[in-house]
Write a structure and sequence with these properties.
single chain; five-stranded antiparallel β-sheet; mainly beta
Length: 197
């Protein structure tokens, strides 16, 4: 299909080709992966963040068709699991679910299939974008100091860190603290963490 048939301007077509040509790479330091590759979570519907009241670590709550789980976003440890929660999908105006484990008694806002969103910027000049240059497959791009794909060089100011070609992207973004970067698809959770500054 020609560029004109797609309705893309020459600039848009060049940007699309630039993103498609960028290989998937690991995020740069100070980011490090939390899991060896990812945590498999079949039927993932959405994720949300809160802070562990004991350790101060970011926690990731995962809502799936098979219940709820809670992960430590620094160690990757699954610290709580509820296979049959009373309130199983995010609801209400805040799109939240009741917390579990150390978050019992709190409501955790969930971003994913039902709506909502995660933070797209974090301290230190970090930004995350989900783009679909080869729709319906989405890619997650991490950038620093305004180095989105339309500026700067791949691997220097922006990085293609995730390609959701095998599952539907549910959410991508930072924790409120900015210390965790998460990508959730319909089948798995990928996390990167960095030390606070």
């Amino acid at each position: 299909m020609s560029t004109a048939a797609r309705g893309l301007t020459p600039y848009q077509q060049a940007l699309r080709e630039r993103v498609l040509a960028a290989p998937q790479v690991a995020p740069p330091p100070p980011w490090r992966p939390v899991f060896e590759s990812c945590a498999a979570v079949g039927g993932l519907l959405g994720i949300g963040f809160d802070v562990d009241p004991r350790s101060g670590n970011d926690l990731v709550m995962v809502v799936s068709s098979d219940g709820h789980g809670l992960f430590d976003a620094v160690t990757g440890e699954r610290i709580a699991r509820d296979r049959d929660p009373d309130d199983d999908i995010p609801d209400g105006p805040d799109l939240a679910c009741p917390g579990l484990g150390s978050l019992t008694g709190r409501r955790v806002r969930i971003a994913g299939l039902y709506g909502g969103g995660l933070h797209t910027t974090a301290h230190g000049g970090w930004c995350v974008d989900a783009v679909a240059p080869d729709w319906p497959n989405e890619r997650v791009l991490l950038s620093k100091e305004g180095g989105a794909p339309y500026r700067g060089e791949h691997g220097q100011t922006w990085w293609h860190v995730f390609d959701a070609y095998w599952s539907e992207l549910r959410a991508a973004g930072f924790s409120p603290s900015g210390r965790t970067l998460a990508v959730a698809t319909s089948s798995d959770l990928t996390l990167w963490t960095r030390a606070g500054d």
